[in-house]
Each structure stands twice: as C-alpha cells, then as structure tokens.
Amino acid sequence: MDEREFFEERTEQKVHMLVCPHCSQENEYQVNWLVRRKRQQPPRGADDLTRAKFAKASSYMVRRDDVLGCKNIRCRKRFEVTSLQSVAEINDTKVAHGADREARLRAAFGRRSQG
Ligand SMILES: [Zn+2]
To answer: Does residue 24 fall inside a structural domain?
Structure first.
C-alpha cells in the first residue's frame, strides 16, 4: 500500500524571514511547502503491517522552493534557501505519545473497547 494514503496532501505557502547571502538584507519570503498531514484513520483494508506503519507515521512537510529571488531591488539575485530545512516535522498534531500508543493498540486489536 502506498504510504501517501496515510496523509492529506496539499501545498501551503508560509512566510519566512530570510537573509539574502549576496546583500545580507532580510526580507519576508513566501515559501511553498508540500504539507502531508496524517489522516485520522489508517486506509481502509489496511493489513497489520500497514497499520503499524501508519501508527509510526507523523505529519511532515517538504519544501518546494529551493531558490528564491532577492527582494532587494538593488540586488535581485537568486539565492538558495539554506536556512530552512528541506523536510520539517509538523508539531500541531493533537496526538500525544500516550494517545498514540492507545491508537496503536486499538489499531491492532480492533476498536470495540472504545465505548
Ligand atoms: Zn540580495
């Protein structure tokens, strides 16, 4: 099963303060990220292995923009985005570690114990 099915995928623009290495000027830049948010449930028909993989998976985002054009009109040079990670974790997941374990048990033993 394709692990992409674990995630809701969409492109988001985020604003970052970045410094151009040519002119050292700091500006706000809109950077495109491919955001993969983990779904609430594993894919339908998932086997045990897939469920285990799903339990371990967490939301993350992949940077789409590698090169940006400097906003300083006297510079305008293109520079590589080195100050941002190319893959970043998303910390806004609501699942804490304890809950994660519970979810994994539920995934392994069915959901009947959940009143
Ligand atoms: Zn510049």
So the answer is: yes
* Separation of CA 17 and ligand 1 centre (Å): 13
Q: How many CA atoms lie within 13 A of 32 on its CB side?
A: 9
Residue 28 lies in domain: 3-109
pTM of the full structure: 0.70
Q: For residue 115, is it within any domain?
A: no
Q: How many domains does the chain have?
A: 1
What span, in angstroms and rounded, lies between the C-alpha atoms of 20 and 29?
A: 11
Q: Residue 32 C-alpha to ligand 1 middle, in angstroms?
A: 20
Please provide residue 108's backbone torsions phi and psi, each rounded to the nearest 5 degrees.
Answer: -75, -35
The rounded Å distance from CA 38 to ligand 1 centre is 37
In a domain, 114, yes or no: no
CA of residue 85 to ligand 1 center, whole Å: 20
Residue pLDDT, tens place only, 56-96: 999 999 999 999 999 999 999 999 999 999 999 886 544 44
